């Protein structure tokens, strides 16, 4: 009885392993078919999904086994306190490296896309589905892990659209970007398209398809013809030049006290001397008169130099003085 049970368990394990190999083979066949042109797009699944865990008491879902020796493990946080971002938003991983995603608030996905259409799920690509963690209340938090198979650039985004399109907010992630296809270009296109790129856009037959431009070129607006130019105003009549004002002398600048010369005293006539009188041809004239019932005598010194010409003619004058009454 026990041998039969062990045989049944072995058969079940073999069937599970066979089913896993068939799924892996189907994925590889889809990639090969699309690469050969039978599909609508070129798909290169450059990762192998290892496990998915919804967090809390949920069981760990083992999806597949690593296909090569494990390399280093890259830890990436999805959402949470940092906002609508993957932290970090890009990594460089070698073949065999493991990438471990931890999902924080609120409700996000890890969905693979192509470089030209950042917010549209790539056919046959990786998709974790929604792994909610409201307000970071699930412990342990949900996780998702895969192994990198080669150095091919891989592009991912969050497909949540409530309350806003997370991809359109720049919630993107990349592995092994190149100088021609950078994380900044991928994020910029995601924000420009805001998840509105058509799924029917042709991808061509090569995974190396480049985007011609990451900016939208709008046609120039149609403008009305400019109004006719008005005739120029008549030239003003020339006016007569204003008469030149005489230049004023520069102000006199004096520094320090200025000593003014003393005013000249008026010239006084030289005193009459006998010599002067004689030289001037003067003569003494005697006269008599009455005063207060008395008589007086007076004399007048007349000469050429005594008075100006015509002065004193017919006038009385002389030096006042006291005359004795006797």
Jot down its keywords.
alpha+beta; six-stranded mixed sheet; four-stranded mixed sheet; disordered N terminus
Describe the structure.
The chain has 326 residues and is α+β, with helices and mostly antiparallel strands. The chain has helices at 2-35, 183-193, 274-280; strands spanning 47-53, 61-62, 73-78, 86-87, 90-91, 98-103, 107-108, 111-113, 131-132, 143-148, 154-157, 172-175, 283-291, 294-302. The strands form four sheets. A six-stranded mixed β-sheet has the order 2-1-10-6-3-4, with no helix packed on it. A four-stranded mixed β-sheet has the order 5-12-11-8, with helices on one face. The chain has a two-stranded antiparallel ribbon with strand order 7-9. The longest helix has 34 residues, at 2-35. The radius of gyration is 63 Å and the shape is rod-shaped. The N and C termini lie far apart (201 Å).
Number of strands: 14
Beta percentage is 15-25%
What are the segments in which pLDDT stays under 50 over at least 5 consecutive residues?
A: 1-7, 17-42, 198-219
Question: DSSP helix count?
Answer: 3
Order of helices and strands: HEEEEEEEEEEEEHHEE
**What structural category arises from helix and sheet content?**
alpha+beta
Radius of gyration: 63 Å
- Integer average pLDDT: 72
Helix content: 10-25%
- The dominant shape is rod-shaped
Largest sheet: 6 strands, mixed
Q: For the record, give the distance between the C-alpha atoms at the N and C termini, rounded to a whole number.
A: 201 Å
What's the arrangement of strands in the largest beta sheet?
2-1-10-6-3-4
């Amino acid at each position: 009885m026990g041998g039969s049970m062990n045989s049944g368990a072995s058969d079940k394990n073999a069937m599970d392993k066979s089913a896993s190999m068939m799924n892996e083979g189907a994925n590889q066949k889809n990639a090969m078919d699309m690469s050969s042109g039978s599909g609508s797009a070129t798909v290169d699944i450059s990762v192998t999904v290892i496990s998915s865990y919804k967090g809390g008491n949920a069981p760990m879902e083992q999806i597949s086994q690593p296909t090569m020796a494990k390399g280093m493990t890259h830890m990436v946080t999805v959402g949470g306190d940092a906002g609508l971002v993957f932290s970090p938003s890009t990594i460089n991983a070698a073949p065999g490296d493991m990438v471990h995603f931890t999902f924080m608030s609120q409700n996000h996905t890890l969905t693979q896309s192509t470089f030209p259409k950042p917010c549209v799920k790539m056919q046959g690509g990786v998709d974790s589905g929604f792994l909610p963690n409201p307000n970071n209340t699930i412990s342990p938090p949900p996780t998702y892990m895969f192994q990198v198979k080669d150095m091919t650039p891989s592009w991912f985004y969050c497909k949540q659209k409530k309350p806003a399109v997370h991809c359109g907010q720049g919630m993107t992630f990349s592995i092994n970007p190149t100088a021609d296809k950078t994380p900044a270009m991928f994020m910029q296109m995601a924000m420009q398209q805001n998840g509105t790129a058509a799924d029917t856009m042709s991808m061509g037959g090569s995974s190396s398809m480049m985007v011609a431009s990451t900016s939208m070129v709008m046609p120039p607006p149609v403008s009305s013809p400019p109004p006719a130019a008005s005739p120029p105003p008549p030239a003003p009549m020339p006016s007569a030049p204003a008469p030149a004002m005489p230049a004023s002398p520069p102000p006199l600048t004096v520094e320090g006290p200025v000593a003014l010369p003393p005013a000249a005293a008026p010239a006084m006539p030289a005193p009459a001397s006998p010599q002067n009188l004689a030289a001037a041809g003067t003569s003494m004239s005697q006269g008599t008169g009455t005063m207060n019932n008395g008589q007086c005598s007076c004399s007048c010194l007349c000469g050429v130099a005594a008075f100006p010409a015509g002065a004193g003619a017919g006038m009385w004058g002389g030096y006042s003085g006291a005359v004795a009454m006797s």
